[in-house]
Predict the structure.
Amino acid sequence: MCAMPLIAASQSTKKIDLPPDTSALVDGVAIKKTTIDKAYGSLAAGGVKPSPEIRNEILQQLVLREVLSAEAGRRGVERKADFQSLLSETKQRLLAESLLGEFSTQNPVTDKEIVAEYERQKTSIGGESATQFKLSQIVLGSEQEARDAINRIRKGEAFDKLASAISTDPASKAKSGELGWFLPMELSPVFGNVIVNLTKGGITAAPIFFSNQWFVIRVDDTRPFKAPSLEESRPRLQSALQQQKRQKFIDDLVKKASIQIGTP
């Protein structure tokens, strides 16, 4: 809910006996307990610790919102062009969000789909025999600079010290070139297809060109990769598969629509 100032206690806001399902009356308009329950539940789901104070604050904000809305109605705010434009935009957004929510509810990810995707991913990484590689890098702006770096390493200069001195990638440079552990499939093929042929301590024989930069890669270590279990993977797989379904639904609708786009 948007932040609004709390209502100052006064004679007009004193507590009285109201119907069981009503938390407040504002000029005869009821604010239902179910409305507060919904807002309260959303905050709790977002990590806000429930408390009577929070519930009271929600009530006060709803009361103030009703007061302001009623005054806006008396002043004819909703008839103004800027309000109508905002209302139209908000309506479109809510309709889109509601449609996608309804689609997800009506097209849930099945357990069969989760198992199939788990097996597909497990096979794609090499099953039980997959290997992870611990990598470090030196990133440079030209091929010649990268070749010079390879030659310096071959002559005995320490890879990590050279990375700290000349690499142009700030994040890995701060860690002496260290990148961490990767499966080959997690990398672009220009890297993945090379590192699988390197042994521990080996560096790329030639610089690798990628995204307008030149890379020298070293394999610091290797280890067998233990794939997470199906149950450990389930939440991630379910989320990814649901997103895929939603995206396909969106793509299909876009293909059916007649769309003409000009200059933004």
In short: The CA atoms of residues 94 and 100 lie 10 Å apart. The chain has a mean pLDDT of 90. Strands lie at 22-26, 29-32, 131-140, 178-182, 208-210, 213-224.
